Amino acid sequence: MDLSKLIERQLAADRRRGFLLDFKTDTGRLRQIEEDLIGLFGEVGEFANLIKKIRLAHDHPDYVGPALEDESQSLRMELADAAIYIIRLSELLGGNLEADILSKMDINDGRYGKLG
Asked: Are 93 and 86 in contact (CB under 8 A)?
């Protein structure tokens, strides 16, 4: 599935579930952006906390914690949750996430060129 279809599917699911994405005023839109931003930070925080525990287990043999290999699926699920919030935030801002990513990739190509 390409990115635009994935985004359409997620937004349709959000609307079907009653998550607000369409606002007549900036007041409601801003409130939803704040709520989704908090959700995004929560997912990134869960990802970071698991990485912290993996790093501790990796660096300190006496620390009983998870291994990267064992937690890769959980980490990917946290990233997927974060991506869903990013899709929602882009929609709330009237963006086209696929076009915005492609545009940013072009900007980065010009900015960074070949670093290696």
From this structure: no
Angstrom distances, CA of residue 15 to CA of 11, 28, 62, 82, 105: 6, 16, 48, 18, 29
pTM of the model: 0.91
> How deeply is 42 buried, as exposed, middle or buried, from its count of CB atoms within 10 A (0-12, 13-18, 19+)?
middle
The architecture of the domain spanning 3-112 is Orthogonal Bundle (1.10)
pLDDT of amino acid 1: 87
CA distance 108 to 100: 12
Cβ–Cβ contacts within 10 Å for residue 75, how many?
A: 16
Closest C-alpha to 22, from 86, 97, 98, 92: 92
Instruction: Summarize pLDDT for 37-74 with one digit per residue, the tens.
Output: 999 999 999 999 999 999 999 999 899 999 999 999 99
Contact in structure between 90 and 97 (CB atoms under 8 Å): yes
- What is the domain partition of the chain in residue ranges? 3-112
Of 72, 85, 80, 90, the residue nearest 41 (C-alpha): 85
